[in-house]
């Protein structure tokens, strides 16, 4: 499946909602309200939904306008909103590029590391995976499985060992090695666990001791299925540790794909990529145009 089609099928649940709203007549208060409601259900955020519905009303579509015309109009508007937040995972890489992956339990951190590692490998850049989720033995096994599958190196420690210490060792190994990118997996943590947030701060400090400018990217992994609750997660992680951007996972299993729009507009946070399935190849760099068009099934 081509890139565009993957995003389209990932966003089809969201697109269906919007299409249904537009399928009736093309003017009047009911029409604009239906559009606003569909956009709110897709989680683009109340403010954006209202603005977009208003701009549709202002555009005064003639009765001859097709559903396709309206969808194209909305997609163009959303593309403009999203464009400033397209962020390239491969822009201005350091050697090695140190990437720290953080987020709430089960959001897709470990899976996303496998996906990112695969993308780097495909560019002939060698990754080192760091299994710094020392809370669960299964977490190390999970990342080891992917390392094996992808044929890349992994640094592991003992269950229950200090994550920051393990990362320190891994980075020393990276300094001696031939790695282009170091991908650090961390334990899932709820945004309200202050002790775990402090651990992340410690991890950042330790990384900075070996590579003063690192982590070069701290990426927050968000689960699109979570809907509105992702806002709290962005707020907390942004406040507690510096976040350079997000990767939104599980777009394939939700009708709330519009949350990307709300997140960018509210927090001005860049998007590196989106996850569209469970396999290592199920990731796509974030493209405002592709995303906006898929959101309206174009
Ligand atoms: N459908 C779908 N499933 C995904 C995606 N990304 C991850 N998953 C699944 O979500 C579940 C959790 O993924 P993990 O990568 O283990 O999440 P995690 O953040 O590392 O979880 P913890 O380490 O427990 O905090 C797994 O079953 C993954 O296969 C995605 O883009 N789409
Ligand atoms: Mg994990």
Provide an overview of this structure.
The protein has 298 residues and is an alpha/beta fold. The protein has a domain of 147 residues: 3-Layer(aba) Sandwich (Rossmann fold), CATH 3.40.50.300. Helix content is 50%, strand content 14%. The chain contains twelve helices and eight strands. An eight-stranded mixed β-sheet has the order 3-2-4-1-5-6-7-8, sandwiched between helices. The model has no long low-confidence stretch (mean pLDDT 90). Guanosine-5'-triphosphate (GTP) binds next to helix 6.
Query: What compounds are bound to the protein?
Result: guanosine-5'-triphosphate, magnesium ion
Contiguous helical run count: 12
SSE pattern: HHHHHEHEHEHEHEHEHEEH
Q: Order of strands in the sheet with the most strands?
A: 3-2-4-1-5-6-7-8
CATH superfamily grouping of the domain at 97-243: P-loop containing nucleotide triphosphate hydrolases
Task: List low-pLDDT spans.
Answer: none
**Structural class by secondary-structure content:** alpha/beta
What's the end-to-end separation, in Å?
16 Å
**Fraction in helix:** 40-55%
User: Gyration radius, to the nearest Å?
Assistant: 21 Å
Number of strands: 8
Text of the CATH class of the domain at 97-243 = Alpha Beta
Shape: elongated
Q: Classify the fold: give the CATH topology of the domain at 97-243.
A: Rossmann fold
Strand content: 5-15%
| Main sheet record | 8 strands, mixed
Mean pLDDT across all amino acids:
90
């Amino acid at each position: 499946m081509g890139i565009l089609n993957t995003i389209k099928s990932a966003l089809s649940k969201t697109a269906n909602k919007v299409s249904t709203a537009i399928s009736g007549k093309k003017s009047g208060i009911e029409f604009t309200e239906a559009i606003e409601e569909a956009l709110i259900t897709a989680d683009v955020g109340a403010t954006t939904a209202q603005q977009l519905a208003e701009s549709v009303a202002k555009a005064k579509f003639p009765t001859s306008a097709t559903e396709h015309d309206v969808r194209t109009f909305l997609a163009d508007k959303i593309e403009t909103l999203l464009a400033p937040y397209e962020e390239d995972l491969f822009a201005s890489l350091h050697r090695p590029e140190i990437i720290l992956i953080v987020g709430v339990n089960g959001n897709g951190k470990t899976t996303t590391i496998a996906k990112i590692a695969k993308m780097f490998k495909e560019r002939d850049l060698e990754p080192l995976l760091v299994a710094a989720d020392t809370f669960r033995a299964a977490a190390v096994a999970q990342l080891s499985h992917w390392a094996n599958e992808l044929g890349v190196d992994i640094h592991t420690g003992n269950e229950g060992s200090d994550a920051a210490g393990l990362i320190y060792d891994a980075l020393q190994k990276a300094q001696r090695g031939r790695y282009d990118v170091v991908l650090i997996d961390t334990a899932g943590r709820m945004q309200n666990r202050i002790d775990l947030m402090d651990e992340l701060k410690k991890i950042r400090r330790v990384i900075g001791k070996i590579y003063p400018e690192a982590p070069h990217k701290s990426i927050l992994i968000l689960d699109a299925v979570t809907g509105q609750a992702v806002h709290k997660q962005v707020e907390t992680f942004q406040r507690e540790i510096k976040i350079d951007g997000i990767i939104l996972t599980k777009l394939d299993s939700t009708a709330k794909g519009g949350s990307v729009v709300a997140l960018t507009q509210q927090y001005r946070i860049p998007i590196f990529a989106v996850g569209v399935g469970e396999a290592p190849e199920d990731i796509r760099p974030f493209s405002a145009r592709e995303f906006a068009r898929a959101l309206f099934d174009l």
